[in-house]
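Before the break, one more example. Copy the sequence into your notebook; we will annotate it together after we see the structure.
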Amino acid sequence: MAVTREATLVPDSCHAGIGRALRALVRPRPGGDVRLVSLRPFLAAFVVPGLLAAQGAELQGRVLQAGAPVGRVIGGAVVRVGDRQVRTDSLGRFRLEGLAGGVHVVRAEAPGFQAATANVELQVGEVFSRDFELAPAGVALPGVAVVGAPELRGRDAEIAERRRAGGGTYLDQAALEQAAQQGRRMGEILSMAGGIRIQRTEGKAFVVSGRQQGRIISRRPCYLDVYLDGVLIWGTEHVEPFDINSIQAITLAGVEIYNSAARVPARFNRTASSCGVMLLWTRAG
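Here is what the structure looks like once it is written out:
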């Protein structure tokens, strides 16, 4: 554990006490010789308490999403203690060192979530662990008369129809936006989707079908065709695979993944797309 040391001024009364302790360590012998006794009383009385005070207390823990599956963390959340604050890492972890002993009000907050506070009592020299769960923030809407669901047209109607038919994996805008706020890149987001694998190298990520279609192991992986707003931007005839991390999740309205030729919608089913397709839909498209 890292230790933060702070310089402190010692009152005159403490100087006197230290002087008495030092004199007690040196005892004269017959003949004028001096014998040095144990330093333990001096260390216990003055040095150790001073080090503990300088070190302070440490608070650590994680910020999690309330009501979500186990391990759903919130990266980039802010944890505040007085005028001190720190952001959680990509695993939702935080740590604050050098805090004073006593009761502190700790507040955890993140965009899109309700803030959470807790009173935490810290002891100097100890490491205290405390996790915070944040509930999604509700949106207050004015009273309206709901007649029915809005009618979907064009692209949105086609996507909704394919979702009803099934056969693929679908990520909507809300899920993509939340993942982007947590600092996740597309390769990490899609790694949670079923039926595909993510290959990573030097910060790049490539989407591979989980179904190898009987390919010989020595041949290259079965990469999915990639469409952006209905236009083919990468196919198996390309030499270099498509880096999905080149797309920012915050710019997308939805993702559809079909991991085999048998599941690909007729509109996107090419003779060469035996590995499946991935459809990316932007908010502007």
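The radius of gyration is 31 Å. Confidence is low (pLDDT under 50) at residues 1-15, 213-218. Try to locate both features in your own notes.
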